[in-house]
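Quick one: structure tokens for this chain, please?
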Amino acid sequence: MHHATRTEPAEAKGNPSDHHDVAIIGGGPAGSTLASIILTHRPRSKVAVYEKERFPRDHVGESQLPAIGAVLDEIGCWHKVEQAGFPLKVGATYRWGRSPELWDFDFISPEVVEAIERPTPYGGPRTQTAFQVDRAIYDEILLDHADQLGADVHQATMIREVLRDGDRVEGLRLQDGRVVTADWYVDASGHAGILRRGMDVKTVPQTNLQNIAVWDYWENAEWAVEIGVGATRVQVLSQPAGWIWFIPIGPTRTSIGYIVPADHYKESGRTPEELYHEAIKADPRVSSLTRNATSRGMVEATKDWSFTADRGHGENWFLIGESVGFADPILAAGMTLAHTGARELGYTLVELLDGVPEAEADWLKNSVSRQQIRRVRQHIKFADFWYAANGQFTDLQEHCRTIARESGVQLTPEAAWRWLAQGGFTTDSGVHAAAGSFDPGTLKQVQWMLTNKASSWQLNKFNVFKMNTRNARRERIAIYAEGRIDRNECLVRGENVLPLAGWYGVLVDLIETHGRVDRIFKAIAANYGGASGVSGPQQQCMQALEIMLTDHWVVGRLDKKVPRIRVESSDQESLYIHWNRDEIPQDRASDAD
């Protein structure tokens, strides 16, 4: 494949019929979702998608997170994906951390899932489940949906050249020599990074996590557990030199992959196929689940090197999905980053197409680019911690120590918490304390599961609070909601951002008005209700206040005359994070024999 570039504005005028508002390179989930978001909120837009392959085609990256459901619902595609009958992901079972015992990270209680009938509309408990998708089917559903909304979709169409003039894209030359032009160009071509490379955007390795992934698809593998109608947990299972994923993606089809450091692969002297089959055979859980299964017999391999682009946009172009950055698949965040990034870029392009002043356009472009790169870096940081804390990598202990040393991870509880949480929880949504699939309480519990050491809650130490805005400046933050971009104020200090919106804004007002923790939470109950649970106002504010303390936006003191609140310790099981109690597959196999 050749993606030469040269300055060629005269030739790049092309045929008027080949001019679009937005030209998207790549028809995978990032590109198709972007097209659908634009056409959902601005139906008159002329959007073209150029995909080099002919769908359907297999693709790795099948495990999703619950946040994707809201995006599918927004573009009107939820029912199509639900009708496809993909397995529901309740969570994941891990062999990872200091203990070799299996543990579960659930998004939702399995008891709730057992009562779900399918197919069901989006809403209620379905906001807390995710899909495990067969990408051959899923990607085609999304691309067909974009086509039905009015996108001009071109499959089996390769971009041969990016025509540029400085930092401006002037056109795309297709394999047949035709030149297409657009007001805006988007690179959704994944690792290929066609536009990223064409515009000479450098990539920055963010970590020593330089792995290879080896995988194949299997027919008739058993599921480790079946919950209700077609729900299960993916399996993430450490081995001495790497880890295995086991993801059912259909009633009979399962994706099984093996991740191993590139250096270990080179030193092993084995082929990827040999490493792959040895890993499966050596794992009692996976080998028992596949004892009656048949592999496709076509093992594939790719580099899984975490990186970010050093910028996410230029004068009239953007990078999206894996072209802007890639985080190790241990947290299954890739598809979520693609969908949520596409949604936010879609909102941005709708405003740019409608016309805004130049200064506002620059702010919009910078906001969406910074957000995408920041998210990838946060997930890379989480992945570094997972690898550094994994005592099951018995053949990779020096490798894990290097990751910890180079990334700055410290495994003492308080230092690890500060390193993980710093700056990441205030910017992901801009309204509540979350970073990817983690809220602060969940992250503290995962930290305990991985290291067997709990980090204490700052909230337990203080009962009187005061805002600390020293050396902070006021800026705007983009909040992407319901088809529009809200401009909200935020405070910025160094790399840390504090949105003055959502639960953060509520807390800023209450801290300045009341200060005392008992009065703050009494006011929350009076004004917003006293609902308990992970999404209740009290819980949301508790999580946000913990992050404000961690990022030093709030300082606390202890007044013995004032009541205190007590947040449960993170060193115990909960409804969502707990030791695995499923039937052991190898025991099941023995019973069958």
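Residues 214 and 301 are 4 Å apart (CA to CA).
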